[in-house]
Amino acid sequence: MSETLDSFRTSMHGLSGRLKERTFRPVIYVGLRSSALLVFVGIVIFFDYKRSIAAGEERLAHVASQFNQTFTGSLGIATAQLFDLNEELARNGLPQTAMQQNQFDERLVQITDNSDQLKTVLVVDDEGIIRFSTSPSLIGISVADRAYFKKGMASDNGTFVVESPIISRATGSYVTPIAWPIGEAGPSRSGVIASSLEEAYFETLLEETRIDQRMVVEVVADDGSVAFSSNKGVERTRWWVEASTSILNAPLATRVATPRSELLDGFALRSLLTAAMAVVLFTSAIVAGLQAQKRLALLTRAFQVSEQAAKKANDAARQFQAVFQNVEDGIVIFDDKASIMDANRRARDLLQVNNIVSAVEIVKSYTELFKLNGRGEESNRVSFKVELPEINDGRDIRCRMDMIETVTGPVYFGVLTDVGAEERLTNTRLRFIESINHELRTPLTSLSGSLDVYLARFGKDLNASGKKLIELAKGNADRLLILVNDILTLHAVDQKGLSISKKEIGADVVLSDAVANLRGYADSFGVNLEIERPVPNVNISADPNRMQQVMGNLISNAIKYSPRGETVMVGASLSENKTVTLWCRDKGPGIPVHSRTSIFERFAPPAHDHERQVTGTGLGLAIARELVERQGGKLLLKTIHTSEAIDDGASGSTFIVKMPAATKLPRVEEEKT
Q1: Which of 106, 432, 589, 637 to pair with 664, CA 20 to 30 A apart?
Q2: How high is the pLDDT of residue 648?
């Protein structure tokens, strides 16, 4: 049991220490929480910012893709418009006669008039000379050095080639050339049909795409030249966001840009809402954290209390073991499952075994007696004699066994007593008391009486030293006789053989007789002995001799502890509840606090130091209390020790005897003295 409590205490101590380490100060706790909140909000806002920018870039890329699709679709329409013309030129070659040429020119004009994409159309022969054009000023000009002509001549039939922007020789402005090869590739190819995409064309595409007016759209070549830009004087800074998408089969890319602020619409509101939510969550977390910290502190305190309780339980277990192992009776404890099993040292000695198991097995064999005597009885107790066949030394071991029902089953408690030893001890005590009565009391009584007679007859003839020796012998004989009488009185009390003969006796008679008996004793100490008047004319029901024994003991103690010249007062009073109080008051040193209870015990230790302590048997007050209580009264003490006294002479003790009142005595004319 002690080891279990030690283990529990150790675990509680460790857990309590860990809980203490986790208990933070509120300021540190709030500071850490605030820092965590700022970091959390910052991370959330940062990632929301990055997400907004990424979403904006994705949106710009989508717009660029839409523009490219519109651009590619527009060129597809232009290709379809030129398809018949291209097939005819591939099949018949370039017109040769003037009539054919005029008809061809009219056809080109008709195509440009019906096309939203083509404003200027050129027909270039295989040598790079412009043979036909909707712009007559361009006829005859060589474009053999132009990249669009070279790539057009090398491209597959049915496709078109878009090249980087160039400066138009007709207008002097940047245009984007486009070429369609005529016929199959090789020697049979007769040239290319060319056109240019001007700024108006791109603006038309921009309108058809329905792009946000706040966005800037640019068509940029691979070499960095700009074919088209919707920027109308707006200054672009590094805070703009852009995305670009390449145009299929062309050295061009569509680039869409917009101010960063346009992409962050709603970002500020989201950030504000995020911060507000974070503050709410933070406040909730702080409150919950503080509550958790409070609960943690309470839990820590609870574990500390548990640790202290475990320590107290451990101490109590050790104290119990100390008492259990050293009591005079043998004790055996066990249950049916052998989970509880113990026997103290005295039990093992009585049963003549050297281990707990053997002691338990001997007593356990008698548990069948519970079934025989009725297990359901309220007392659940049996008594029996323990048979020890192998031991024949006159022992008579008796066991009183109790059974207690528990959740896990019955638990048995056996108390072993050597009745033979008790009887032998009782007989020895009785023989000792009889020896005291016959061998000491009778000779001492005879000796004391003889010395009284000797002093009365020959005291005048003795010299001073001889008389002093006789008086000393007389005093010692009386003191021994008092001790013997006290021992015999206590024996009578213990054996319930104390003779009490109650009579109705007046309180004034009790006091007067006691004072008369001890007047000479008081004079020998130089102490006055007086009765405080008036004494109530009331009777008490008591044994006159025993009351004189009580009052004599109290008054003699008061005389011995009173300084010379002081007065010991005795008196009586009658209370409203018909209780008579007899008291004896002295002006001695009083009783120290530590001895105010023990002075009524038998052979009480000295109450004072050796300078003030008066020799005695230590039995007087114990006998006085027994005699008073046997007569239905109480013996009490009121005292002020010299260490508690405020003024000199304020110390002293008052012993109080409370007795029930009998019938009132008739008043008398003269008071007894």
Answers
A1: 637
A2: 67
